[in-house]
Amino acid sequence: MNCAQRKAAISAIAEYIAREREYPAAGETIEQIYGVNVLRPEILRELMTKEAYERLDKIIHSADPLEPELADAVADAMKAWALSKGASHYTHWFQPLTGSTAEKHDSFIEPDGAGGVVMKFSGKNLIIGEPDASSFP
């Protein structure tokens, strides 16, 4: 990258930062935008079959384990919702016994073996246990 390209990139970033959106935008109220990026039960209900959602609701209220088949259905619904919001990555956020928090970022994007990509997220990704954080500083 030459000097002119670097200056153009820095200028573009500065201009973008200067145009940051104010919340709420004109005509919006806090009530209209609060939680719009939160995957709520009613959204899952729309994205899952009635039977799958009812099984999930029962598990949530009984603390029974999430069986792999249902975990896949939940993961499919979560991925569809996240992609509709423009997401390409997800985070496993956890609280190790160190007094702080940590995050592990992963992507929905996986190579398809033909030079392209596919978007994947499985029940296995969803129900993975808390990492031991041995690889984190």
List keywords for this structure.
137 residues; alpha+beta; two-stranded antiparallel ribbon; two-stranded antiparallel sheet; 45% helix; 13% strand; extended
Structure, explained:
With about 140 residues, this protein is an alpha+beta fold. It is built from 6 helices and 4 strands. It has helices at about 5-20, 30-35, 40-45, 50-60, 70-85, 125, and strands at about 90-95, 100-105, 110, 115-120. The protein has a two-stranded antiparallel sheet with strand order 1-2. Strands 3-4 form a two-stranded antiparallel ribbon. The longest helix has 17 residues, at about 70-85. The chain is extended. The mean pLDDT is about 85.
Short description:
By secondary structure, this protein is α+β, with helices and mostly antiparallel strands. It has six helices and four strands. The protein is extended and about 60 Å long.
Along the chain, the helix and strand elements come as HHHHHEEEEH
Based on CA inertia axes, which overall geometry fits?
extended
Measured between the Cα atoms of the first and last residue, the distance is 32 Å
Strand arrangement across the biggest beta sheet? 1-2
The helix fraction, in percent, is: 40-55%
Low-confidence stretches: none
What is the tally of beta strands?
4
Alpha-beta classification: alpha+beta
Sheet having the most strands: 2 strands, antiparallel
What is the helix tally? 6
Mean pLDDT: 84
Indicate the radius of gyration in whole angstroms.
Answer: 20 Å
What fraction of residues sit in β-strands? Answer: 5-15%
